[in-house]
Amino acid sequence: MKKTSDRKLLPMARRGLGSKGRKIQLITNHFKVSLAKKDGCFYHYTVAVFYKDGRPVEARGIGRRVIDKVYETYASELPGKDFAYDGEKALFTLGSLPRDKLEYMVLLDQISSNKVGRNGSPDNTDGNQSKTFKVEITYAKKIRMQEIVDALLGQESDHQEAIRVLDIILRQHAAKRGCLLVRQSFFHDKVENYRDIGGGVQGCRGFHSSFRATQGGLSLNVDMSTTLLLKPGPLLEFLRMNENVNRTNLIDWTKAKRMLKNLRIKANNMEYKITGLSDKPCKDQTFSWKRGRDANGEVKSIEITVAAYFERYKGIRLRDSANLPCINVGKPKKPCYFPIELCTLVSLQRYTKALTSSQRASLVRVSRQEPHERKASVSNSLRNCRYNDDHMLRSSGITIGSEFTKVEGRILQAPTLRVGNDKDFTPENGRWNFIDKQLYQSAVVERWAIVNFSAHYDIDILVKGLQRSAKSKGMTLGKPKVFKEDKQMSREPAVVRVEQLYATVMDQMGWHPQFLLCILPEKNSDIYGPWKRINLADDGKGEGVVTQCLVPTKLKNDQYFTNLLLKINAKLGGMNSLLATEHLCSIPMVSKVPTLILGMDVSHGSPGRSYVPSIAAVVSSRCWPQISRYRASVRAQSPKVEMITDLFKPVSDSKDDGIMRELLDDFINTSGRRPEHIVIFRDGVSESQFNQVLNVELDQIIQACKHFQETWDPKFTVIIAQKNHHTRFFQANAQKNVPPGTTIDNRVCHPKNNDFYMCAHAGMIGTTRPTHYHVLHDEIGFSADDLQELVHSLCYVFQRSTTAISEVAPVRYAHLAAAQLAQFIKFDEIPESSSSSSHGGFTSVGTPQVQELPRLHERVRNSMFFC
User: Fold this and answer.
1) How far is CA 423 from CA 417, 418, 567, 587, 856, in A?
2) Residues 808/791, Cβ–Cβ less than 8 Å
3) Residue 207 forms beta bridges with which residues?
4) Whole-model pTM?
5) Would you say 597 and 621 are in contact if contact means Cβ atoms under 8 Å apart?
6) Cβ pair 241, 231 in contact under 8 A
7) 576 with 565: CB under 8 angstroms?
8) Residue 5's pLDDT band (cuts 50, 70, 90)
9) What is the SS3 assignment for 437-448?
């Protein structure tokens, strides 16, 4: 094929529908949309909002109020012109406005502000502050509804722009009803929607609503959605909850300062945004209070503390906050202070910091809905929205049906798996176990050790259970050496503890261990990252040892020991089970032609920590014709960058030839042949990034192949695996989830492009979320059935599990590899202020240079260390 740099690739069209599998009738949360005015059009205008002095308005949230005021003030000049405004720079109308460029002046009262009074004192801020705004509205282009019609007919069309307008109308509709808008999800400030998840944070249940072009026509996708909000109320109480302390003197004010920045509060009957904390407590923090002018016109001012000011001139004697820092709502050179006890958090503020493990568990619990509950909630949300009463939608000729869309699914047969002693079996309901089964290929483990960082753990029960389970699975597991941390070391920093005990282990083992079983003191222990790094990284400190971590648990039954052994065996090069078709070399398009399977993912900093480097991971199959063995290549790259940048490095580098060179070398070494087919599964990208995957990432992979050998021209298939979507499927007359293996490629899929939904796993709790696969490119020439069966089978080769998983194993492995190597970086040492400078070896957000991750040690580089 030509290099992608010679021609721009676009997502491929569907070649046909699948036919294999038992048919099942389903319904989905898509609702039919009728278009009465297919010849209508929207007019797109750009919006610019300025203060009276000409400065552009940058504060979020003001624009929508300004545009509403324009519509209200100048209604006579805009008769019957409904506005759909995105809250920033785009405005859409039905029919054109009077002129191509319009200018308006409007006055808004009681604007939320951070403006400080003349002297920075709290009482000089006008509680009825008003501002004048200048608004410029300029014609941009016309958007035809026919674009949507053309797309539904499978014709080339820029229909996304028209659908974007319709989605903005939905946002406008929700904004008028006082909802919090989070992209296309909407949240009402109602008590019944809130669920406390701890730490001053609430899960707020709302709904998602967006238009989609599908094979069955235009549809409205409605689903339930949950976002995180701060618990409104007294600010001091929030801090105590957030830091889980019951006394004010236990608050960590360094942590509190990071938490409070940019939060909105109410004080002095006005709303402000917090900019920081004072350096001194209220009783000591002074400011210059200007008390008017004397007879000579000179400004009179006195230095007074914040506490004294409120007691003398406001009649408020501070109880809790005299000894606490003040809340600063001013600017660095013009602070404006309020005592913290007089501040309350306003409602509907999103919480964007990282969650604790208990908060994450609570969020999952409060977000979960069984299928019948979710169906009822979706119906209620659509009915309560009353979209058909919206004037702009009606004027557009759009009406929305109230019935769930009916679709036909197919339940694919679970693949047959092969285990030890050449035994085959077929999983039932997406699950199986290893009772009376042996591992397909088991590792022989004679040299291993247990490293115990936990004060209380019965090692004898653990060893006997593991050895008993290993024997029943056909695995040889010798007697381990046991190393326990000295009690005095438990007070030392995590890195010191790890290095000390690791050195003891290596000194006393007498030989290089095959693997180390590490007992952590608790879940989410700070021991985990340093322990993984010293064992796996090639940075001169460790010796390259496969390791498995566990935390103390009361549950130590046979299933527990089996699950541990599955991970250990896979990490040591064993194989727990594999596909029977893989063993028999009968996988269509894969077994007869050397085929490399890649899984690609990029993980970013958690919410509130977006300044940390992103981690790109690519896993690749090895030992063809097997497709159940993988190894990983991982790199750090600039924060928030989704496209993988190190797939190919055109300049020869003795240290790093790029990810693909590393993986291609491994495939050739373990398979004896170059891959002629390369199947790529990419996770974590949105539809707007599909072209970049084809024309940036695929191009790098092709260049890597050409650099390897100019005449080498493998065929590629590129598939996106999406979990972040809102389509759900239900059995029409049953309360349980759809069966594992359910596949849908009709009615609600793209009208032209090649995509399908698959629920490979058994949804035991909540409502099953299908994976949405988009086949962007297919030179190999898979039929719809062959490709869907390959995808389904790859959900059964995840070596650490005895269940089918919800996405193909290579993608899950890439996610795990990225997450594990992210532990190598001490992210806590990178300050949030790194947006403008370099810290700790990591460059700031937006710069191309990022400190490299340590390379994996050669002893573990080819292992499934991530399993």
Assistant:
1) 8, 6, 21, 19, 36
2) yes
3) 186, 224
4) 0.91
5) yes
6) yes
7) no
8) very low
9) CCCCECCEECCE
**Gyration radius from the chain CA atoms:** 31
Name the one residue in this structure whose structure tokens are 């719809």: 784
**45 and 137 Cβ atoms separated by less than 8 Å:** yes
Helix (H, G, I), strand (E, B) or coil at 96: coil
Closest CA to 541 of 496, 591, 592, 599: 496
Q: Which residues of 615-628 are buried (b: 16+ CB within 10 A; e: fewer)?
A: bbbbbbbbbbbbbb
Kindly state the tokens that stand for 233. 């109320």
Sort strands 344-345 and 270-273 into parallel, antiparallel or unpaired: unpaired
pLDDT at 126 over 80: no
Q: Are 741 and 411 in contact (CB under 8 A)?
A: yes
- Of 526-530, 611-615, 643-647, the poorest mean pLDDT is in 611-615
Token digits for 84?
A: 């759909």
Pairing of strands 742-744, 276-281: unpaired
What are the tens digits of pLDDT across the range 591-642? 999 999 999 999 988 766 667 899 999 999 999 999 999 999 999 999 999 9
Place of tokens 């202070």: 337
The CA-atom distances, in angstroms, between 111 and each of 107, 128, 130, 334, 340 are 10, 8, 6, 19, 22
State the pLDDT at residue 846. Answer: 40
What is the rounded average pLDDT of the residues 667-679? 97
Rounded to whole angstroms, how far apart are CA atoms 722 and 806? 11
Q: Are 601 and 683 in contact (CB under 8 A)?
A: yes
What's the CA gap between 139 and 137, in Å, rounded?
7
Tokens representing residue 639 in the block? 């924060």
Angle at 340 (CA atoms; ends 346, 267), nearest 5 degrees: 45
With contact defined as beta carbons under 8 Å apart, do 551 and 522 qualify? yes
Q: From start to end of 412-485, where are the E strands?
A: 417-419, 423-425, 444-445, 448-452, 476-477, 481-484
- The C-alpha atoms of residue 33 and residue 611 are separated, in whole angstroms, by 41
Helices (H) and strands (E) in the chain, counts: 19, 39
For residue 742, which of 26, 87, 88 has the smallest C-alpha distance? 26
Q: In 188-283, at which residue ranges do the beta strands (DSSP E only) sit? A: 194-198, 201-214, 217-230, 233-234, 264-267, 270-273, 276-281
User: How many C-alpha atoms does 456 have within 13 Å on its Cβ side?
Assistant: 3
Q: pLDDT per residue over 414-448, tens digit each? A: 999 999 999 999 999 999 999 889 999 999 999 99
User: What residues form DSSP beta bridges with 41?
Assistant: 144
Question: How many angstroms separate the CA atoms of 748 and 740, rounded?
Answer: 19
Q: Residue 824 in contact with residue 634, Cβ under 8 Å?
A: no
Q: Give the pairing of strands 481-484 and 578-579.
A: unpaired
Angle 706-708-709 from CA coordinates, rounded to 5°: 65
Per-residue pLDDT at 659? 95
Query: Binning pLDDT at 50, 70 and 90, where does residue 646 land?
Result: very high
Q: Give the Cα separation of 842 and 753 in Å (integer).
A: 40
Q: Which residues of 107-140 are buried (b: 16+ CB within 10 A; e: fewer)?
A: eeeebbbbbbbebbbbeebeeeeebebbbebeeb
In the chain, what are the domains? Answer: 33-188+202-220+370-401 (no CATH), 233-289+300-346 (2.170.260.10), 442-571 (3.40.50.2300), 580-727+770-825 (3.30.420.10)
| Percent of the chain residues past pLDDT 70, beyond the cut | 92
Q: Regarding predicted confidence, which is higher, 734 or 273? A: 273
- Alpha-carbon dihedral 792, 793, 794, 798, rounded to 10 degrees: 110
Give the C-alpha distances (Å, rounded to integers) separating 708 from 527, 652, 704, 855, 863: 41, 12, 6, 22, 24
Structure tokens at 683: 């996770």
- What would the pLDDT profile of 706-743 be if each residue is shown by its tens digit? 988 889 999 999 999 999 999 999 998 888 999 999 99
In whole angstroms, give the CA distance from residue 545 to residue 548: 10
Helix (H) or strand (E) holding 367, with range, is helix 357-367
| Residues ≥6 apart with Cβ < 8 Å to 865 | 536, 546, 571, 632, 817, 820, 856
